[in-house]
């Protein structure tokens, strides 16, 4: 059963989303404590049906609105919480999650003691932060004294507590009113779809050195000089220019890649026409939908960059590509997810040896927790919207055989919500 919430008004309610959720929470409490009379067609009799909310699925911004944990800044990770190792870049001014994954490695792993390949002159000896249960989190929120936004003077009190305690909590979420919520192993899902898309965007724009979107710029190189030991990427005092990095393509390689993408074709219904998203003059992609990035990330990265990038860079990119491919398979096992949980820290550390600190924001960190969520919540296919978008596109092609990909994308943006109503039960 899917529950859809429509919030009226042109503005984002942010933390006050709980005001609109009050009727839903009241009905969910009634479904749990009392239930409703339901007809069982197999036994041909009525029974008292009870129901519980398993979890929420949203993008990372809405994650904050639903859970009450701030998903911005140095404490953005809802799993690491105050145990994050983020730092601010002096020149770039942004928060970096660079060197935040060594603590997830085995204690004897050599990356922990490497003082040159990561943050210079630093070693990592601590272990991964423990995953807190719902009961522990609720107890912590109550100790701080956070109030629900529906209570009187909640905004001012919550702001003062959050500032004084320097924690990531902003409020007491209304979902804690559900009597079973604290016993749920996962309450709010990390959205794999948007994490994968943002990860891909950072990779492609940095490799292609897209102006305004690349993570490798003058400020990034200055921060690199401060935090890392990579003298080969420092500014040349003679020419006053920065040397080209190993992960950045030359102009002829960019042209070859754009030409290949322009001529690339997929089986009908597998992906949209990526050729229309290629800007051959500026060597960049535009108008890429989430599913296009999904296909490129998992299927094309190992092929596209095989002969264009050095072996160590291509290998690291292929490993992160295969990670997302294995994570999103329709059939998973506990053993496979445990293996991915062990592999992802190593993959991210290998990327850290290649890309600058500015490359790593919260979206590059969150994959460290995705395998754990898959072990608890099951296959990703039940926790994102891709299947429904594919069904909608298929129905459009059947009703309008000559419709093109651009028109389908437009209808997805405009009419998908109305079409999806038939899948929603209330």
How would you describe what is shown here?
A hairpin with a 6-residue loop joins strand 4 and strand 5. 31% of the residues are buried. The longest helix is centred in the last third of the chain and has 19 residues, at 334-352. The protein contains 14 helices and 8 strands. It has helices at residues 17-33, 60-67, 134-144, 154-165, 192-207, 218-227, 251-263, 290-304, 311-327, 334-352, 362-365, 370-377, 386-399, 405-420; strands spanning 36-40, 45-49, 56-57, 87-88, 95-96, 188-189, 278-279, 284-285. With 426 residues, the chain is mainly α. A two-stranded antiparallel sheet has the order 1-2. Strands 3-6 form a two-stranded parallel ribbon. The radius of gyration is 24 Å and the shape is globular.
Radius of gyration: 24 Å
Number of helical stretches of at least 4 residues: 14
Strand order of the largest sheet: 1-2
Structural class by SSE content: mainly alpha
> What percentage of the residues does DSSP assign to strands (E)?
5-15%
* Count of distinct strands: 8
| Poorly predicted regions | none
Distance between the termini: 8 Å
Shape: globular
User: Biggest β-sheet: count, sense, barrel?
Assistant: 2 strands, antiparallel
Helix content: 40-55%
**Global mean pLDDT:** 90
N to C succession of SSEs: HEEEHEEHHEHHHEEHHHHHHH
Any key phrases for this structure?
42% helix; mainly alpha; 426 residues; single chain; 14 helices; globular; two-stranded antiparallel sheet; two-stranded parallel sheet
Task: Give the helix/strand layout.
Layout: H1 17-33, E1 36-40, E2 45-49, E3 56-57, H2 60-67, E4 87-88, E5 95-96, H3 134-144, H4 154-165, E6 188-189, H5 192-207, H6 218-227, H7 251-263, E7 278-279, E8 284-285, H8 290-304, H9 311-327, H10 334-352, H11 362-365, H12 370-377, H13 386-399, H14 405-420
Parallel strand pairs: 3-6
Antiparallel strand pairs: 1-2, 4-5, 7-8
Helix pairs in contact: 5-8, 8-9, 9-10, 10-12, 13-14
């Amino acid at each position: 059963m899917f529950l859809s919430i429509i919030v009226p008004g042109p503005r984002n309610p942010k933390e006050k989303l709980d005001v609109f959720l009050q009727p839903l929470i009241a009905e969910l409490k009634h479904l749990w404590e009392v239930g409703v009379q339901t007809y069982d067609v197999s036994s041909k009799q009525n029974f008292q049906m009870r129901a519980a909310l398993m979890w929420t699925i949203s993008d990372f911004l809405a994650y904050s609105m639903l859970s009450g944990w701030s998903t911005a800044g140095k404490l953005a990770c809802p799993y690491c919480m105050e145990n994050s190792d983020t730092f601010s870049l002096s020149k770039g001014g942004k928060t970096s999650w660079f060197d935040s994954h060594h603590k997830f490695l085995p204690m004897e792993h050599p990356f922990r003691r490497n003082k040159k390949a990561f943050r210079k002159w630093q070693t990592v000896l601590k272990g991964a932060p423990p995953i807190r249960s719902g009961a522990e989190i609720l107890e912590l929120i109550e100790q701080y004294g956070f109030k629900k936004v529906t209570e009187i003077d909640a905004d001012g009190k919550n702001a003062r507590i959050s500032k004084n305690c320097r924690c990531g909590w902003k409020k007491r979420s209304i979902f804690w009113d559900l009597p079973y919520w604290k016993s749920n192993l996962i309450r709010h899902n990390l959205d794999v779809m948007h994490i994968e898309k943002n990860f891909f965007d950072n990779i492609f724009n940095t490799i292609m050195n897209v102006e305004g979107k690349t993570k490798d710029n003058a400020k990034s190189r200055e921060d690199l000089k401060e935090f890392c030991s990579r003298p080969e990427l420092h500014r040349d005092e003679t020419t006053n220019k920065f040397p080209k990095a190993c992960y950045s393509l030359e102009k002829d390689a960019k042209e070859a890649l754009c030409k290949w993408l322009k001529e690339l074709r997929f089986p009908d219904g597998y992906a949209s026409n990526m050729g229309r998203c290629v800007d051959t003059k500026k060597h960049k992609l535009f108008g890429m939908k989430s599913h296009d990035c999904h296909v490129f990330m998992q299927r094309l990265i190992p092929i596209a960059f095989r002969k264009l990038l050095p072996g160590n860079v291509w290998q690291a990119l292929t490993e992160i590509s295969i990670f997302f491919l294995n994570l999103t398979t329709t059939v998973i096992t506990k053993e496979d997810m445990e293996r991915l949980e062990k592999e992802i820290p190593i993959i991210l550390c290998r990327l850290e040896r290649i890309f600058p600190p500015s490359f790593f924001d919260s979206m590059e960190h969150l994959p460290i927790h995705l395998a754990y969520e898959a072990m608890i919540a099951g296959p990703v296919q039940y926790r994102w919207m891709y299947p429904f978008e594919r069904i909608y596109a298929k129905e459009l092609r059947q009703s309008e055989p000559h419709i093109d990909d651009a028109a389908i994308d437009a209808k997805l943006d405009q009419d998908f919500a109305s079409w999806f109503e038939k899948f929603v039960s209330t």
